[in-house]
Amino acid sequence: MKKIICAILSVLLTLSLAACGNQKAKEASGLEEGGDGYTMNPDLIAKNTEGKTKLTLACFVLMPDIEERIINFNNTNQDYYIEVLDYSQYDTEDDFSAGETKLNTDILGGNTPDMIELGKRPIEKYTNKGLLQDLNGFLETDPECSKDDLLPGAYQALSSENGLYRIAPSFTVVGLYGRESVIGAEQNWNIAEMQNTLTTKQEVANPFINMPPVQVLQSLTMYTLDSFIDRKEGSGNFNSSEFIQLLETVKKFGQANQEDYLETNETLMNNKGLLATIYLSTIDQYAKIDDELSGDFNVIGFPTDNGSGNVADFQFSFGMFADSEHKEGCWQFLKSFLEQDYQQSIAKFEIPVLQSAFIQMLSSSNATQEQKDQYEKVINAITKTADFDGTLLGIIEEEAQQFLDGARSSEETAKAIQSRVAIYLSENS
Amino acid sequence: MYTKRKQHKQNKKPEVLFLLPSVMGVATFYIIPFMVVVAYSFVNNPMDMDFVGLENYQAILSTKAFQLAVKNTVMFSLTGVPLAVVVSLGLALLLESNIPGKSNIRTLLLSPMMVPVASVVLIWQVLFASTGPVSGFFATFGAGNIDWLQSEYAQIVVVLLFLWKNLGYHMILFMAALSNIPKDLLEVAEIEHASAWFKFTQVKLRFLSPTILFVTILSLINSFKVFREVHLLSGDYPSESPYVTALYEQHI
Fold it and tell me: Cα–Cα distance between A377 and A375 in angstroms, integer?
């Protein structure tokens, strides 16, 4: 009798342990129960999937036009359909990166999705570990779409050192702009030249319009991080004289007490400001600003030692995991972003990556030929994208705040940043 | 004899059944994951599972962050562990003698054990801030403002916090060991006019040696797990000085 009771107790205990784990796994997956995060369009759930192969797309947030592409793909493609895995639902108020952690856990556990919406996160996290597929191979063999069909600047900005790991349908250009008669007609400048210009115009009340010192620092580092870091080697040089000079420029010329929002172009025209950040999209926007500044308009970019200081900002980009068993199907979806009709439709709001759609946008605009030429020059000079690394920028901002508050010198700040950033870069190399 | 052996075997069955849940739990949550992790250390990634030999070990040993973490952890252990043993032994010997307010002092030294680290870290951050009282104290001797937590002195602060947190527990262990030393041996030494140093080294230390070994091993293990203190004091990515292997593991 005793033995029977013992046996029953042992079996019950074992089963309850297993059930606990199962319940936790279900709760953790959260896909059925939903959670925090953006509200997914219910039409994204594909209908008529019989006979079709499933492709999974990991995402954190999708805009309506991207959702429409997915729905369109599901309705028109005969061989594949897409299941969207919304990882933003795992994010909480205490932990904004819980979704990313869940995705990383799934990858480590062998449940890698087929594709991923990369957003603005640094792709080196995935490319350094060989997780993403190089898409150059598809561009070389695809009869409908090749590398030469893309804007050279966009292609270069999307590419990494070792290949092309993502496709984006459109982008904007981020840079600094001002009046050509004040900042010059050059298409780029470095820190020393920018500081020189600011020094000669010290009487101007708001050198950086609508940008407090922390935001100036954030802009100047976020869009020029590649000058200070080498992700492949896992090293940084934030204790260089250029970065120290940048810190001193920010402190000297950033306006700490800007309370009221200033109308940018009016402030420039009244000589009360020197530089402002531009998020340049269509030719019509460029022409509008040029008209407001009476033709005295130059997009000079962020200070950099090489190339253009303007950077491409891709709001959405999509990659394919190297582990996917349906690469052909994934490419069919990624390629759909480069279709002529779609590219022409988004050319109303952002810069299309397809060259023919870009030319179409220029030709259908009412801008002057000179404006079109200048605009094209800015776009074609693009070679890189913004490096939005939250951890890196957080370290820089945290340390720089003490310098901006006057608690330590620029050299000490640069040394402290270098010390912390070196560890971060080394871990992720 | 055969019946006894058969009975003994039959009695083993319920024992085995009782042990089964624990064995399964340990296997599921400890042994199997450990073996899986060891297996993963010899492949390129968990998806491809291509055998790469010792490449992963070579990669991690050549990573600067790992080298720094190991160096700092070793330095921390070499500093913190001997101090933890010696100071707690000293305190135990002090409290063993008849000093006034012995029980109040003992309570004071044990109270850090009750306080969660997260609650106390804020006070330590204020104490050791560049404009905090500790910096102010050193400033009276001519030193400038020292940012203790973001400089090469950060490890000193972590060692002090580690000692402050653990001394009470180690002291209790030593006090228990001291109370178990046979009193007659000490009386004989007293009668023979042995010096205090002789009594300590030739009598007490011999009886304390197992406890010293235990406290040393315990401190060493705790020194490798000092993640909370560093993370809460210095943040996610601290400067080089307090960066230890526990942080590296957490980031990786």
Answer: 5
Backbone dihedral angles phi then psi of residue A368, each to the nearest 5 degrees: -70, 165
List CB contacts (< 8 A) between B46 and chain A. Answer: 108-110
Chain A nearest CA to B190, separation (Å): 58
Of A80-94, A250-264, B19-33, least confident by mean pLDDT is A250-264
Quick check: B64 and A130 CB within 8 A?
no
Nearest CA in chain A to B129: A407
User: Locate tokens 């050193």: which residue?
Assistant: B138
Residue among A134, A82, A81, A103 at smallest CA distance from A37: A103
pLDDT at A363 over 50: yes
Across the interface, do A13 and B21 touch by the CB < 8 Å criterion?
yes
Chain centroid offset of residue A289 CA: 25
Choice among A16-25, A316-325, B85-94, B114-123 with the minimum mean pLDDT: A16-25
| pLDDT(A362) > 70 | yes
**Shortest CB distance from B47 goes to which of A7, A110, A398?**
A110
Give the closest residue to A357 by CA, choosing from A86, A221, A154, A163.
Answer: A154
Q: Quote the DSSP letter at residue A226.
A: G
Hey, are the CB atoms on A2 and B64 less than 8 Å from each other?
no
Instruction: Collapse the DSSP code of A86 into the 3-class scheme (helix H, G, I; strand E, B; otherwise coil) and give the result.
Output: strand
- The yes-or-no verdict on residue B100 having pLDDT over 90 is no
Greatest alpha-carbon pair distance for chain A in Å reads: 99
Instruction: Quick: pLDDT tens for A124-158.
Output: 888 888 889 999 999 999 999 999 999 999 999 99
**Contacting residues for B166 by C-beta, under 8 A, at least 6 apart:** B84, B88, B219, B222
Q: Which two tokens stand for residue B38?
A: 């060891």
Determine how β-strand A351-352 pairs with β-strand A273-280.
unpaired
- β A170-178/A80-86 pair status: unpaired
Nearest to A416 among B17, B236, B239 (CB): B239
Q: Determine the 3-state secondary structure of A239 from DSSP.
A: coil
For tokens 């030709």, name the residue.
A363
Nearest to B68 among A391, A408, A423 (CB): A423
Alpha carbon of B125 to those of A113, A184, A252, B117, B154: distances in Å? Answer: 43, 48, 30, 12, 11
Chain A residues with beta carbon closer than 8 angstroms to that of B238: 420, 423
Best residue in A232, A423, A428 for a mutation probing chain B (most B CBs within 10 Å): A423
Beta-carbon count within 10 A of B252 CB: 11
User: Up-side HSE of residue A393: CA atoms within 13 Å toward CB?
Assistant: 20
Helix (H) or strand (E) holding A80: strand A80-86
- Residue in A with minimal Cα distance to B12: A3
Taking CA atoms, A115 is separated from A103, A323, B87, in Å, by 12, 10, 58
Q: Residues B107-156: pLDDT tens digits?
A: 998 998 888 888 888 888 888 888 888 888 888 888 777 788 888 888 99
Comparing A390 with B157, the larger pLDDT belongs to: B157
